[in-house]
Write a structure and sequence with these properties.
Length: about 750
């Protein structure tokens, strides 16, 4: 005879804290009249339920199928227990198990229910900028330890008023155990009411606003003078500013929004989405100079909503909303820090007294083939883990230099840091160090191995090599790119890896960047690359693309050749031109490079689009921008079947120069050039398929942020029967390097 009552213990692992899971369990248990309790543990959620066996089954199905929208259950372990006769259902205090590990929820954009609360004049949270509930609000940015409880967040400083406490204690309330729960009576306060901030913004002022993961600098995006002033004061030359608008309808006034874009915009991550700009858009030109796209996001905190929609009738359609920092420094998080560092940038401050613990920038995505592709992984995504499929040794991978992230592994997860930035100054290195310490503590990681890039001068490499007492593993830059693409696509077997980017240190001491590798996580063979050209003056050659163009010209037409017949080139002083020519001829202060990014720079310079750049990739972006759609022809190229094979672009350069001399429109040349690179990819992959019998191709590296190229490369490869893998969860640029380093380092550590 079956027992009348049963008791089961259920352990859940995954993202199950800070998103309303315990109240959900409570309601579910009551629905099925089960007794028992639920509590957070440091590794997830633990519950015990007692009642009729068939209702326990229904309860378990409910847990699996009806859980809160942002929960991610990674593992469920059910154990049979002896019934204890416990009555009622309790939500218990958290258990502190120091050695355990729990996933932490990223910050979540304000939910619709909360939005209704602060929009309603009858509600006690009317116009309250810190409204949140178990479905939304700050998480990662305010948590400094697990299990997730108010006491280990920066909300610990605020004592809940009786009304908030009652919500917090009521299992039927949306704010039951909402750790950052707050109201105007007891919660954080702002130093400037949002209505006042709106009128300042409408009057053309620049405000420093304390947001979720750091300060933001805001001004009216339609006010040319204000935007230009922000650019000058921030000392940011040409990099585009992000925008924020109240809703998708508002964004559609100035950008084209596809269904996939809309979904990305409205997702709880609320990233900046790169969108095609409408030609007649009223957005100030200085927001994104020479750029046919705009990066736009929707409000993700109540404060943002209040700033963007007021009943005051002010004509604020879109705000510039850019990181609160000076040029390339980390985003500012503390009030005193902001008042000191941003004093010369902002006309006014909107601060508040809820501390930010984790510094987290806004994320950036672009949709491709209907899916969002992360270009900068930060707020809303970090610290959401990448599931590696099997357990790994705990490693620290220090990442690259530009767009740095680092990666820790724990169990089967890769925990990627938020975007740290370009590791080129002391402040950013401090941000790297501080975040690493915070994440190691939060996720209980004690790395046993340190993985780094081969470039001896990257600050991330130097940091790794200075760590005492841990084995070090160096991973080649493009191998790491391919490793990252393999990891997020769960590939283990050998692949053809196409690693195209601006700069990566090669095993021969030269600068690689147009690489075809046969790779798996245990190693790689460099099977083909673009023919080397000299890079005259190192970093100077990155800032001045005409130098690389000159290298290509001299390589193609002989060492006596100088500038092309392009008007803009007359602006280069003859003396400098001759000096660089001599450097190239004699090989003085030059390195050899196979960089695809530099090849794009060279073609942009040959077309006279841009001879100098203010940030890496600027010339290449402009070249993509002008490319005429709807062309399929390409230039000629040759392959030298040496070991490794060399892709010889001299025939293409010859034709490009002829096109330029006959005044062919830049858009046609650019399209043909892009098509040529796609054709090179298909050609080399086809040859490698014959010799290696491999059919899977991974495309990675910063060059594949170029959607024109990516679209054609993917289509060309698929047409020839290849299975193509690209990035979506981590950036194709150097922001994804640390993931590749981590999985390759892990593999090498176990081989060694
Ligand atoms: Zn909410
Ligand atoms: Zn309150
Ligand atoms: Fe790279």
């Amino acid at each position: 005879m079956p027992p009348v009552t049963a008791r089961k213990q259920i352990r859940l692992r995954g993202i199950v804290q800070g998103i309303g899971f315990r109240p959900f369990v409570y309601r579910l248990a009551r629905r099925y009249q089960l007794h028992g309790h639920v509590r957070n543990t440091a590794e997830g959620l633990l519950m015990e339920v007692e009642g009729a066996p068939h209702t326990i089954e229904q309860f378990l199905q409910g847990v699996a199928n009806e859980h809160p929208p942002f929960a991610q259950i990674e593992e469920t372990v059910v154990t049979e227990l002896e019934p204890t006769g416990e009555t009622g259902f309790a939500v218990r205090q958290s258990l502190d198990e120091k050695a355990q590990f729990a996933l932490v929820s990223p910050d979540l954009a304000t939910c619709e229910d909360c939005r209704r609360d602060f929009a309603n004049p009858q509600n006690r949270r009317y116009a309250y900028p810190f409204t949140n509930c178990t479905n939304c609000g700050p998480r990662y940015t305010i948590i400094y330890d697990v299990p997730y409880d108010r006491a280990v967040t920066t909300m610990a400083a605020f004592r809940m008023c009786p009304a908030c406490q009652a919500e917090y204690d009521d299992p039927d309330n949306r704010r039951f155990h909402a750790q950052p729960n707050a109201c105007p009576v007891c919660g954080p306060t702002v130093t400037l009411p949002p209505v006042a901030a709106r009128s300042l913004l409408a009057a053309g002022r620049i405000l420093a606003i304390k947001g979720l993961g750091g300060f933001q600098l805001a001004c009216d995006a339609e006010n040319d003078a204000a935007v230009r002033q922000l650019r000058e004061r921030k000392r940011r030359s040409d990099k585009p500013f992000a925008l924020m608008a109240s809703g998708v309808a508002a964004i559609e006034q100035f950008c084209v929004v596809s269904a996939a874009d809309r979904q990305a915009l409205e997702s709880p991550q609320r990233p900046i989405v790169i969108l095609p700009r409408r030609p007649n858009a009223r957005i100030a030109a200085a927001v994104a100079p020479d750029n046919p796209t705009l990066g736009v996001m929707l409000p993700y905190t109540p404060l943002h909503h209040l700033l963007l929609s007021g009943a005051d009738g002010l004509p604020l359609h879109a705000l510039v909303m850019t990181s609160g920092n000076l040029s390339e420094e980390p985003i500012v998080i503390r009030n005193d820090e902001a008042r000191e560092r941003l004093a010369a940038v902002a006309d006014g401050f909107l601060c508040h007294n809820r501390d930010i613990y984790m510094r987290v920038d806004d994320s950036v995505v672009r949709t491709f083939e209907g899916r969002p592709r992360v270009l900068r992984r930060a707020r809303g995504f970090a610290p959401y883990p990448i599931d590696l499929g099997n357990s790994m040794t705990e490693v620290l991978a220090c990442g690259g230099e530009l767009k740095n992230t680092f990666c820790l592994t724990k169990g089967r997860y890769a925990l990627l840091s938020q975007h740290i930035g370009d590791l080129e100054n002391y402040e950013t290195l401090e941000f790297f160090r501080e975040t690493l310490e915070q994440m190691k503590k939060l996720f209980r990681v004690e790395p046993r191995v340190v993985v780094h890039d081969l470039h001896p001068n990257y600050l991330s490499t130097r940091y790794a090599l200075d760590l005492d007492g841990l084995p070090k593993i160096g991973v080649q830059h493009h191998h790491a790119h391919i490793g990252a693409c393999m990891a997020e696509n769960h590939l283990r077997e050998k692949v053809i890896g196409v690693g195209f980017d601006g700069t990566g240190y090669g095993t021969d001491g030269q600068i690689w960047g147009g690489e075809f590798l046969i790779a798996d996580l245990a190693g790689f063979e460099r099977r083909a690359h673009f023919r080397y050209v000299p890079l005259a003056g190192g970093d100077q050659a990155i800032r001045e693309p005409w130098r690389v163009a000159l290298s290509y010209l001299m390589d193609t037409f002989g060492p006596q050749h100088s500038s092309p017949d392009v008007p803009l080139w007359n602006t280069i002083p003859v003396k400098r031109l001759q000096m660089v020519q001599t450097m190239i001829r004699r090989g003085v202060n030059t390195v050899q490079t196979s960089s695809c990014g530099r090849l794009f720079d060279a073609v942009a310079a040959l077309l006279g689009l841009r001879l100098e750049v203010n940030f890496e990739g600027q010339a290449a972006i402009q070249l993509e921008t002008v490319a005429h759609p709807g062309r399929d022809d390409h230039y000629a190229f040759e392959m030298e079947m040496s070991d490794p094979w060399q892709v010889d672009m001299r025939p293409a350069i010859r034709e490009i120069v002829a096109d330029v001399e006959r005044r062919t429109p830049a858009g046609a040349v650019s399209a043909r050039f892009h098509n040529t690179i796609a054709a090179v990819i298909v050609e080399v992959c086809q040859r490698l398929r014959i010799s290696e019998r491999l059919n899977r191709v991974c495309l990675s590296g910063g060059t594949f942020q170029n959607v024109y190229l990516l679209t054609r490369a993917v289509a060309g490869l698929r047409r020839h029967g290849f299975e193509v893998f690209v990035h979506s969860e981590v950036p194709p640029n150097d922001g994804g390097l640390s993931l590749g380093q981590a999985v390759i380092g892990n593999c090498l550590f176990h081989v060694a």
